[in-house]
Structure formats: structure tokens, C-alpha cells
Write a structure and sequence with these properties.
The radius of gyration is 19 Å and the shape is globular. The strands form five sheets. The chain has a six-stranded mixed β-sheet, sandwiched between helices. It has two domains: about 180 residues, 3-Layer(aba) Sandwich (NADH Oxidase); about 90 residues, no CATH class. By secondary structure, the chain is an alpha+beta fold. It has ten helices and 14 strands. The C terminus is likely disordered.
């Protein structure tokens, strides 16, 4: 078993200080995500996934880490703000290096430990695990929101057969560069309250109700999924909502090479992001690789 406090040894592996990278790290017990599984099945029944057929494959496996790593006991989640990353580097690569650093540190204490790392590409529900690990909560825009850092973060997950437990019941331990959340700390289910700015601001009504996204209506979906076609069709409302002329959406259709970074209106209007606004010129390059 590894005590939660010992995870501070991860900091040097992340280049903390030299690069001023900042991470949130949380730990959750490896259990079946039955609540999330039921919600995912209902979402798929409504065809809200559109052409993303891969989401419907192996649904049970996606919601239970024991189906991915049968010996799994702990799920370690790391979150990092996009504006803390190298400007011209794919965030998948940045976060994967950090997940591999976590694994390396685990193996120093438990040499026979079994671990699997994922960054946005594996059969794990990163947002759900981040919420269960205490990094944030799922907002009405369906995104993970950290009250301290907003929602514009990249996530990475490590599944391990090592039992990770906190040595103390305090809410968390923090240095200037890394915050470690103890395994008994959780945010409430949601801290959105009565706010519905994201729902009201969405130009296409993709947020059909709080916490439910119809991806087929989402402008980012059109960019990142339908853009694989020869051209992408946008309505005038979508063009206006996304930013119109300043976004280069002067025509009804254009080739994929014109695609830049999707739509983040539901994040831009979120009060939790007001103090954490990331300029497009800084974040687009990393985010466009999602």
C-alpha cells in the first residue's frame, strides 16, 4: 500500500519548479461506475453520440476499471490547465509523460505494480473518475469543473493494482506547484446551483438539458468528427455563435484545414472560468488536437 502523502515524490518527475507545471492529483477506489453506466446507456439510446460509434462499444468495460485491469485497486487522476502546457505540443503527449512519471514513482515503492495509463484515448471515463477523485464536479455543460481552476484542463488517468490510501483526514495538501487531494475528499455532486449560463449561451441548443449534451448539435462535434468529410456544413446561427468573420466562417462550408479549435462558448461563459480565461492564441493549438 502507498500512503497518499508519498505521492509528493511525484513532483520532481513532473519537472515542478523548473517548468512551473501545475497539477491536481486525486485518488479514487477502483469500483464499478454503475451510476455513470446507467446514464451513458440512456445517452446512447437517444443517439446523442452521433457518429461517434466507438463510445457505444464495450460500454460495461468503459465503466468498470476491473474490466480493463482485473487487479485494479486504485484510480489516480491528474489534471493540468491547458495554459500551463508547452504552447506547441500535443497535450496527449504532455499528459502521457506525466502519467508515465507517476507509474515510474509507483514502481519505485512497489516494483511489481501493474499499471495502465490513459489520456483521452482509453476505455475509461476520465471526467467521472476526476470527479470521484475530488478534482472537481461535473457541470451543467457536462464538463469537469474545478472551482479553483475552471474547466479548461487536460486529464490523465492511471489504473493500478496498488492500494493508495491517505494517511490523514485533512482535505488536501498543497505546495505552490502541486495540490494533492486525499482519498476522502469529494466535491458535492454539482456546484452549478441555479446558474444556466452555458445552456442559454449555446448557439445550437446542444445542451438539451442540464448535464445532457446532444453531440450532434455541438459545433465542436462538427469540427472534430464531421470534419473528416470533404466539407462541413454550418448554419448561419452556428457561424454567428462560433464567432463569425473573426473565426473565418464566411461561407457555408469549408475544407478541414480551415478548422481551428471548435467551440468553447459553454466554457467561456462559465463563472468558474472567469478568473481562468485562456486566450485562444495560447490554447487553440493544444486543444485542437483533442
Amino acid at each position: 500500500m502507498i500512503n497518499c502523502d508519498s505521492l509528493y515524490c511525484f513532483a520532481p518527475a513532473f519537472g515542478i519548479g523548473a517548468r512551473n507545471d501545475k497539477l491536481l492529483i486525486g485518488i479514487a477506489d477502483a469500483i464499478s461506475l454503475d451510476y455513470e453506466l446507467a446514464n451513458l446507456k440512456r445517452w446512447l439510446e437517444n443517439n446523442y453520440n452521433g457518429e461517434m460509434g466507438w463510445i457505444a462499444r464495450n460500454v460495461e468495460r468503459r465503466c468498470n476499471p476491473l474490466n480493463v485491469l482485473p487487479e485494479c485497486k486504485s484510480v489516480i487522476v491528474a489534471a493540468m490547465k491547458y495554459d500551463e502546457m508547452p504552447k506547441h505540443e500535443d497535450y496527449h503527449k504532455v499528459m502521457m509523460r506525466k502519467m508515465e512519471a507517476i507509474v515510474a514513482e509507483i514502481k519505485k515503492e512497489e516494483p511489481t505494480a501493474m499499471c495502465k495509463c490513459y489520456v483521452d484515448t482509453g476505455p475509461v471515463l476520465e471526467k467521472a473518475w476526476a470527479a470521484r477523485a475530488g478534482i472537481g464536479f461535473i457541470g451543467k455543460n457536462t464538463l469537469l469543473i474545478s472551482p479553483e481552476h475552471g474547466s479548461q484542463m487536460a486529464l490523465g488517468v492511471v489504473l493500478t493494482d496498488v492500494e493508495v490510501r491517505s494517511r490523514t483526514s485533512e482535505v488536501g495538501r498543497q505546495t505552490s506547484d502541486i495540490r494533492l487531494l486525499t482519498s476522502d475528499f469529494r466535491f458535492p455532486t454539482s456546484l452549478c446551483g441555479s446558474c444556466r449560463k452555458c445552456l442559454d449561451a449555446c448557439p445550437t441548443g446542444a445542451l438539451v438539458e442540464p448535464y445532457i449534451l446532444d453531440a450532434r448539435r455541438c459545433i465542436s462535434y462538427k469540427y472534430f468528427v464531421e470534419s473528416k468529410r470533404a466539407s462541413v456544413e454550418f448554419t448561419s446561427r452556428e457561424r454567428e455563435g462560433y464567432g463569425g468573420k473573426e473565426r473565418g466562417l464566411a461561407s457555408e462550408s469549408f475544407p478541414p484545414y480551415r478548422i481551428k479549435g471548435g467551440c468553447d462558448i459553454c466554457q467561456d461563459v462559465c463563472p468558474y472560468n472567469k478568473e481562468n480565461v485562456i486566450a485562444r492564441s495560447v490554447s487553440d493549438e493544444a486543444i485542437s488536437r483533442r
